[in-house]
User: Fold these one by one.
Assistant:
Number 1:
Amino acid sequence: MVRNYAFTFAAVTLRLYQPAMLPLMNVMPSLEYSAVHESAAWLSLLGNVLVAEYFIVQRTLAPLARRQSSEPAEALLQQ
């Protein structure tokens, strides 16, 4: 579900990135609108997927690492 939300909200972040990147066309006259749109689309998709993967890793792998690091301490306490 987290990945699904990331892909769904990529359209929302595209609409946030695109107006922010349009002033680049004034700075670089050779830059076309299609290049700005394509770059904004990739940025929105990549940014959302990276954030989603970060949350997935934190939710699944971080508790495992904490549990594995505390197991030797628990074994010492039981002896």
Note: The chain has a mean pLDDT of 87.
Number 2:
Amino acid sequence: MFNVDELILALENKHNVEVHKLNGQHGFSDPFSLKYNEASAKKAFYQMLFFLWKHLDVLTPMENRTNFFICGEDPFMID
């Protein structure tokens, strides 16, 4: 077992690392798990997409991008 808050403190100042604490238990993003948390799973998925979109300047240069994703029916706003 580990302390989530201690892990966050250890990782939050690393280069190209973003830390987000979501509601849920181990397995929260697995739709076949009894611990599945749909809201947190969606949030984690969109945060991962945004991280990749922001750090992998492969498809579209940052200055030409819009400020939101549309993935399926769920728009994800970028702050």
Note: The helical segments are 4-11, 38-55.
